[in-house]
Amino acid sequence: MQGFIIEGGSELKGEIRTSGSKNAALPMIAACLLINDEVRLHDCPCLSDVYSSVKILNTLGCKCSLSGGTLTVNCKAPVSDHIPDRLMRLMRSSALYLGACIGRLGSCTLSYPGGCELGARPIDLHLAALEKMGVCISEKHGVIECTCPGGLHGAHISLSFPSVGATENIMLAAALARGETVIYNSAREPEIADLAEFLRRCGADISGDGSSVIRINGVKALHGCEYSIMPDRIVAATYLCAAALAGGELMVTNSRIGQLRPVADVLCEAGCDIYGYDDRIYISRKRPLRAVKTIRTMPYPGFPTDAQPLITAVLSRAAGVSVVAENIFENRFRANPELVRMGARIRTEGRVAVIEGTDRLYGARVMAADLRAGAALTAAAISAQGITELGNIEYIDRGYERLEKALSSVGAVITRTQI
Ligand code: EPZ
After folding, report:
1. pTM value surpassing 0.90
2. Centre of ligand 1 from the C-alpha of residue 92, in Å
3. Which one of 52, 61, 245, 367 is separated from 272 by 20 to 30 angstroms, measured CA to CA?
């Protein structure tokens, strides 16, 4: 299998640019299905999830090309409303084609999405919302058939949980629906605001994004546009955590500290110096790391669940006892057993991890179990003593553009090879 060989022990030093956001790009690519025109998305990250999205659009009859970080999409004449199961299973974001497909074509046949196994990850909130908008849904043996005999109409939808994906799916379905849709308890993540801004640039009538009430007035049609995708705040957090673990100093460009405040605050409490400028973040760690108060993952603007594996790795090297509570996903401590193989002292019980910091981690043979767990193990291995072999790095390639190259450019010793 493909893996990283990581020689630990070197500090990080230099400047590293964050790529465009995966979790902003994926819903925007799905939104292109709504648009009978050409769209150009700049700073589009070269990730396997983006390639999977292109495969879905091609299957539906859209033309796509990706070069030099710009994805050009043309959905002038969709030819199908059916997304094959093998494509649905490639990632979680395939669920977003439900709203886009019904919004454009009035029907859709798909199956349950794939994605990192962080827990059950149902789409009940997505389906319940679309039914309120006039969608008839029948499900047989895992295949979900959606039709909209009376056409999509607006609705007032209260989400029992501020689900990112459900909020995005409703926005896509509502953009061309008849009348007003209001989402109460909507997700407030920056990627939602970026999607809304993209859709407005295409002529959609959306307001309230970033708050917990989003209003969408359906319009007749959307037109094409050029748009630059926001920076990936979780990739930026990954670089910051790698520097915190390895020591040294980094300037992370194309990133906004305001979108990462909870992560920056924890790293400062753990003993790092962090300064945010308008489009960059400086971090240095010259002192030993120290334990922090309990961390609880929450919907934005709380501590992001996607950074939880990364901060858990940092705290495994922090003197004292730290506690991390994972409140978003039921199975998101998948890096912990692998960190223990590297000498970390972590006790994981359900949704709580108790971390007794150690002053040293050791290279070992470990496996990535999901995207962010893989990134956390990479960061831990850079700071470990000795050689680490990290397998299943295809998970990492779903969310990072050549992570090994980016970190090697600032002093890490990582090679991609068969292991
Ligand atoms: C998005 O996933 C992100 N993925 C995730 O990032 C991120 O961790 C998550 O939001 C939370 O911020 C993308 O944007 C592609 P949710 P999503 O719907 O939309 C439950 C990464 O590492 N739920 O907010 O799937 C669900 O099970 C990935 O980049 C329902 O119960 O997240 C979970 O417990 C991982 N029913 C919680 O809500 C539903 O219908 C949050 O899920 C939908 C969700």
Report:
1. yes
2. 8
3. 367
Distance CA 284, CA 188 (A): 30
What are the start-end ranges of the H helices in 71-189?
A: 85-88, 97-105, 124-132, 164-174
Q: Could you give the CA distance from residue 161 to residue 167 in angstroms, rounded to a whole number?
A: 10
Task: Answer yes or no: is the C-beta of 23 below 6 A from any ligand 1 atom.
Answer: yes
pLDDT tens profile 272-323: 999 999 999 999 999 999 999 999 999 999 999 999 999 999 999 999 999 9
Answer yes or no: is the C-beta of 306 below 6 A from any ligand 1 atom. Answer: yes
pLDDT digits (tens, 9 = 90+) for 23-60: 999 999 999 999 999 999 999 999 999 999 999 999 99
End-to-end CA distance of the chain: 6
Domain ranges of the chain: 2-19+231-418, 22-228
Cβ–Cβ contacts within 10 Å for residue 352, how many?
15
Does this chain's domain 2-19+231-418 share its CATH topology with 22-228? yes
C-alpha 31 – ligand 1 centre gap (Å): 18
Looking at domain 2-19+231-418, its CATH superfamily turns out to be: Enolpyruvate transferase domain (3.65.10.10)
